[in-house]
Design brief:
16% strand; 10 helices; ABC_transporter-like_ATP-bd; alpha/beta; two-stranded antiparallel ribbon; Rossmann fold; transmembrane helix; AAA+_ATPase; transmembrane; 6-stranded mixed sheet
């Protein structure tokens, strides 16, 4: 809950994410999706535990916990000052590492063409970059930090299809060894996840591979998919089925 007198936003929330798993988090507005991420970062007082690698992170210093989790927020955050500081605020990495990250998110040419390269100025809020470019800078920042947990808070909701595709492919390829939690309103971004966490009123309603969940005739995910329309629903189910069959062959 956000204040001591407020009702609980998350209720008996309990789920397990295995190393390297890609988890989609879905649910209608107010289901508790973003609150789950707030709990992970301990932005508000918690009851209960959040265990990562066998360690109760609620017992650790906040800066230690937050430094180990990368996030690409819905509204990308850039700071005024040189691009270098946006990628590497504490000056911990070489230029080669920074350029490599920019190349991986298709921004190397854009930055190198600016007058001062990595030292080029970023306006307050990153307004001299498009929303999509700001998202890609956040993605490059996550690549540089190389954390084992990545959170995407509706990260593709405000970007063009090309940038959306770049982000999705980078997550699959560059973050293959990470646990990735993705909040998405657009179901196509998570139908190839290892599991989907379906939330409602701060509770877990369903949690399994999307294709398994779609077999539930009156399931919540089934209803969400059906609501997209017959053609889109068929495409979503096809993605889930192909992913499920591929994983079954690899097992």
């Amino acid at each position: 809950r956000y204040n001591p007198s407020d009702p609980y936003v998350l209720k008996n929330l309990n789920f397990v994410v295995q190393p390297k798993e890609k988890i989609g988090i879905v649910g209608r507005t107010g289901a508790g999706k973003s609150s789950t991420i707030s709990a992970l970062f301990q932005l508000y007082p918690l009851e209960g535990s959040i265990i990562i690698d066998g360690i109760d992170t609620t017992k650790l210093p906040l800066d230690q916990v937050r430094s180990k989790i990368s996030i690409i927020p819905q509204e990308p955050i850039l700071f005024s000052g040189p691009m270098r500081k946006n990628l590497d605020p504490f000056n911990e990495y070489s230029d080669d590492v920074l350029w490599n990250a920019l190349e991986q998110v298709d921004l190397k040419d854009t930055i190198s063409e600016m007058s001062a390269g990595l030292n080029s100025n970023v306006s307050e809020g990153g307004t001299n970059f498009s929303v999509g470019q700001r998202q890609l800078v956040c993605l490059a920042r996550a690549l540089i930090r190389n954390n084992k947990i990545l959170v995407l808070d509706e990260a593709t909701a405000n970007v063009d299809p090309h940038t959306d595709s770049l982000i999705q492919s980078a997550i699959r390829e560059k973050f293959a060894d990470c646990s990735v939690l993705t909040i998405a309103h657009r179901l196509h971004t998570v139908m190839d996840s290892d599991k989907i966490l379906v939330m409602s009123s701060g509770r877990v309603e369903e949690y399994d591979h999307p294709y398994v969940l779609l077999q539930k005739e009156n399931g919540v995910l089934r209803d969400l998919v059906n609501a997209t329309g017959q053609t889109t629903a068929k495409n979503l189910e096809k993605v889930a089925r192909e992913n499920f069959e591929s994983k079954s062959k690899d097992a």
